Amino acid sequence: MNRSFHRALVAAALSCALVACSQDRGEAPDRGSVTRLAEPREAIGEHLMLALGQAKNFHHKADVYLARAEPEKAVAALRQILAIDFPADAPEAADVRLDARARLGTVLAATGKLDEAFAVVDEGLAGAPRPSFFLANLYTVRGELHEARAALVAESDPATAEAEQRAAIADYDHAISINEKLLAGLTGGAQ
Amino acid sequence: MSRKDELDPITPSEAAHAESFAKVVDRLLAGEHLPAAMDADDRALVETATVVVASHRELPLTADRTRALVDQALERGVLGRGLTAPEAAPRLAEVESAPAPVPIRPARRRLAAIAPWSVAAVCAAAAIVLFVSRPEPGAPAPAAPVAELPDELSSRPADGLVGQIPRAHAADASERADIIYADRLAGFRELSFRSGGEP
User: Fold this and answer.
1) What would the pLDDT profile of B171-193 be if each residue is shown by its tens digit?
2) Residue B87 to residue B69: CA distance in whole angstroms
3) pLDDT tens digits for range B60-82
4) Which residues contact A26 (CB under 8 A, 6 or more apart)?
């Protein structure tokens, strides 16, 4: 009787283990929702709208400050655009920030702060995630900065002026190249 | 024997015969066998007398005699020994074909003996069913249908909206920010309307 009972217990334990293994194997994958958004495009959400709204407001502040001949405050407002919290991987974030850098570099150059302008623009060019019209525009702005520097040293340092002018041309060519590729992609053929 | 004979005095020979007859009856009741040489009439009288005596009083039997009588009765009743051949044959067949006696076990002990095996059998059956019915491991789940959002409702690059930026408008980021915001606001409102007011 005891031996039979022990054998039965072992058989029951092995059967339970097999049941557990059957459950572990082949578990149905999580199907998630029936429909899902195509990646990487996400729906326009509240977070994105808030960020775009902030950027718009800071730009308008800068407009007012510039109209009031207060470029330092305009620069401060434009710098705040670079600190806005956009949704992660939102394509609009890169576009808005590049555009803000382009305007900030222009305002800084207008106030005689070329080095600071170059720093803002170079930082934007280094961190650009993809080719875009905004990136091409930033190259255009850097080309203008090189032109401005060339004009400043043209009489005192012609060589530097020469180099700056060549750098400007390179940047313009870079901008042209980006624009042409983007236009080809949008129109579906080479122009 | 006539009535006149019954009234006559008993002769010595009749007394001797009666005494010997009584001794034979006593010896028979004691378990002894009848004498081999005996008149048929006398043998019948002795057996009749034995029956009469047994019907009037309880006959004490020795243990050996009792055992012998029981064995003899069983042999005659079960095995058919002492019977004629036709009478013995069916009884032998019945005994030889009878099923082996089944020991009578308490119901509780029987239940305790089979319970563990019953549980094991149920678990094994459940394991087999689950194992057979499990989905194919590694088999890719059917792809969920993807709902492609229209452009106007999705977060996307602003290149298509803004287009190529002329050099003369390189610093007009404020206007482009207004355009982008207005465009995305329209999509956001549409999404809110479709979801019943919930973004």
Assistant:
1) 999 999 999 999 999 999 999 99
2) 21
3) 667 787 788 778 777 777 666 55
4) B134, B135, B136, B137
Residue B187's Cβ-side half-sphere holds a number of Cα atoms within 13 Å equal to 20
List pLDDT tens digits, range B82-115.
Answer: 545 445 444 555 555 555 555 555 667 777 778 7
d(CA A38, CA B145): 10
SS3 A43: strand
Tally the C-alpha atoms within 13 A of residue B162's C-alpha that lie toward its C-beta.
32
Long-range contacts of A5-12 (CB under 8 A, 24+ apart): A5/B113, A5/B116, A8/B116, A8/B117, A8/B119, A8/B120, A9/B116, A9/B120, A11/B116, A11/B117, A11/B120, A11/B123, A11/B124, A12/B116, A12/B119, A12/B120, A12/B123
Mean residue pLDDT of chain A comes to 87
Which chain A residues contact residue B160 at CB under 8 A? 186
Q: Among all residues of chain B, which has the CA nearest to that of A142?
A: B170
- Chain B residues with CB inside 8 Å of A130's CB? 157
Cβ-based contacts of A59 with chain B (< 8 Å): 173-174, 177-178
% helix / strand / coil in chain B, to the nearest 5?
65, 0, 35
Which residue of chain A comes nearest to B124, CA vs CA?
A15
A17 vs A9: CA distance, rounded Å: 12
B52 close to B42: Cβ distance less than 8 angstroms: no
Q: Do the beta carbons of residue B118 and residue A10 sit within 8 Å?
A: no
State how far the alpha carbon of B97 is from the alpha carbons of A147, B100, B101, in Å: 123, 9, 12
